[in-house]
């Protein structure tokens, strides 16, 4: 067995992980652009090596376009696409995949360098293995998601599989960030806040559920189902939320039900984080926690406001056009990720007695 020796400081490894966190945020945002532009099904094959480069000449472009013409999305939705239109959606899916490969490269090469330089502590080995397994799993889920939209009468990827892909991406992001915090933050900077720590994890759990419904909102394009606020199409509690006889499926397939739950969870999160901030102010002392405890409230406020704007501008959605709604939707997704990381940051900085 290869013995991994300890190093004096874990900071280089932590910086490496934080670079990965930044790249994962960009990757998730690229996934959002891919979804908003309807680009996810433009590449019909999963070629890990040969797919690194886009088509390099007109003949290769025509070959890729011909493959796309056999997909349900082209035949049922984009049948009027020109080669120029295809190049646009192809670019975003290709760039999304390219960035994923780049993340793999950025993780793999420094890993080998750190390994050779014996910079890993023994306790880092298991988290690193988990990290690489999560990355590989995310790639596999990504292809399963795309494949779900290449058969039958599907013109988009299945919302449930899109949600699974998004949730696992957030899991990878969270795990990498937590790992970096373990290496960067000295134990003496963690403060006692037993009840607040428990409350933080409750909020994180609610946020996790909210993010799941956010992904279902995106997958079903449910914003346009109720482009009004504060009411939902003139009602506080909309009708037909459980119109399907399948019961549970209303929670993941009924657009109005998904929309209602997503809004409701947003209000609950805002109220809980307001209470959390009030409780956090009761903890005295100058430390990292006290200087950053305002972040969740700031971010959840921006999240609620951007969500309202996204709903109100959803009527301006135009096919194959990037407009106000798309910008707001991307901002909404970015703030959601930052809110999650800020709460994880707070949870890490608190400890029980």
Mean residue pLDDT: 88
What best-fitting shape do the alpha-carbon axes yield?
A: flat
Q: What proportion of the residues is helical, as a percent range?
A: 55-70%
Note poorly predicted spans: 1-7
List keywords for this structure.
353 residues; mainly alpha; 2 domains; two-stranded parallel ribbon; 12 helices; 65% helix; flat; disordered N terminus
Task: Explain what this protein looks like in three dimensions.
By secondary structure, the chain is mostly helical. The chain folds into two domains: 1-184, no CATH class; 186-353, no CATH class. Helices cover 65% and strands 1% of the residues. It has a two-stranded parallel ribbon with strand order 1-2.
Q: What's the quick description here?
A:
With 353 residues, the chain is mainly α. It contains 12 helices and 2 strands. The chain has 2 domains: 1-184, no CATH class; 186-353, no CATH class.
Itemize the secondary structure elements and their pairings.
Blueprint lengths: L10 H26 L21 H11 L3 H5 L6 H34 L8 H23 L11 H26 L6 E2 L1 H27 L29 H4 L1 H26 L7 H5 L2 H18 L11 H26 E2 L2
Helix pairs in contact: 1-4, 1-6, 1-12, 5-6, 6-7, 6-12, 7-9, 7-12, 9-11, 11-12
């Amino acid at each position: 067995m290869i013995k991994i020796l300890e190093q004096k400081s874990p900071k280089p490894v932590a910086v490496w992980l934080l670079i990965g966190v930044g790249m994962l945020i960009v990757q998730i945002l690229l996934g959002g652009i891919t979804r908003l532009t309807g680009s996810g099904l433009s590449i019909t094959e999963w070629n890990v090596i040969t797919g690194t480069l886009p088509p390099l000449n007109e003949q290769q472009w025509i070959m890729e376009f011909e493959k796309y013409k056999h997909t349900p999305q082209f035949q049922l939705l984009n049948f009027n696409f020109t080669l120029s239109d295809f190049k646009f959606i192809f670019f975003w899916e290709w760039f999304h995949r390219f960035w994923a490969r780049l993340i793999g490269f950025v993780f793999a090469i420094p890993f080998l360098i750190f390994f050779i330089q014996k910079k890993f502590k023994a306790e880092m080995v298991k988290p690193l293995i988990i990290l690489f397994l999560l990355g590989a799993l995310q790639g596999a889920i990504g292809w399963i998601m795309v494949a779900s939209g290449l058969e039958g009468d599907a013109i988009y990827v299945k919302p449930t599989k899109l949600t699974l892909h998004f949730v696992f991406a957030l899991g990878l992001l969270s795990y990498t960030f937590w790992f970096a915090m373990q290496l960067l933050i000295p134990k003496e900077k963690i403060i006692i806040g037993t009840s607040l720590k428990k409350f933080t994890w409750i909020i994180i759990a609610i946020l996790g559920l909210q993010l799941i419904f956010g992904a279902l909102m995106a997958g079903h394009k449910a914003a346009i189902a109720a482009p009004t606020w504060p009411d939902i199409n003139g009602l506080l509690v909309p009708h037909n939320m459980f119109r399907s006889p399948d019961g549970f499926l209303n929670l993941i397939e009924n657009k109005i039900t998904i929309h209602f739950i997503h809004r409701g969870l947003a209000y609950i999160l805002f109220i809980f984080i307001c209470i959390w901030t009030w409780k956090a102010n009761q903890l005295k002392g100058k430390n990292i926690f006290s200087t950053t405890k305002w972040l969740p409230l700031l971010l959840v406020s921006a999240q609620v406001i951007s969500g309202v704007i996204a709903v109100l501008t959803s009527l301006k959605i135009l096919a194959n056009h990037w407009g106000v709604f798309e910008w707001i939707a991307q901002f909404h997704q970015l703030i959601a990720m930052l809110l999650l990381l800020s709460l994880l940051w707070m949870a890490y900085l608190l400890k029980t007695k």
